[in-house]
Design a protein that fits this description.
91 residues; alpha+beta; five-stranded antiparallel sheet; 2 helices; 26% helix
C-alpha cells in the first residue's frame, strides 16, 4: 500500500521524539514496520533529514558519526514504489 511521504515523515519524527534513547527508538521503528540500518552516508544531511536517491528515499534517524573517517548514521530506506506523491499545481 502506498503512503504519502508526509505521513511517513510525521510518523518517524513522532517516534524519534518519543524515544530519545537510540536502542528504544530502533526497536519502536522496527515494530512500526520500518527497517533501520547503520549505513555510510554521502552527505552530512543531519538528524531526520530526507534524501531522495534513485530507487529509495533515505530518512536519517540518528546523528551523524565518523566511522573509519567516513560519515555514518542509522537510516531508514523506503523504496520509491511504496511512496505516493501529492503534487499541487500552481494553476
Amino acid at each position: 500500500m502506498k503512503r504519502d511521504i508526509d505521513t511517513i515523515r510525521t510518523e518517524i519524527t513522532d517516534i524519534c521524539q518519543m524515544h530519545p534513547e537510540m536502542l528504544e527508538r530502533l526497536k519502536t521503528l522496527e515494530a512500526a514496520g520500518y527497517k533501520p540500518t547503520y549505513k555510510y552516508i554521502k552527505s552530512n544531511g543531519g538528524y531526520r533529514s530526507i534524501n531522495k536517491m534513485e530507487k529509495v528515499i533515505r530518512i536519517q534517524v540518528s546523528y551523524t558519526e565518523l566511522k573509519k573517517n567516513y560519515p555514518a548514521a542509522w537510516c531508514i530506506d523506503i523504496p520509491m514504489a511504496e511512496v505516493q506523491y501529492n503534487i499541487v499545481l500552481p494553476f
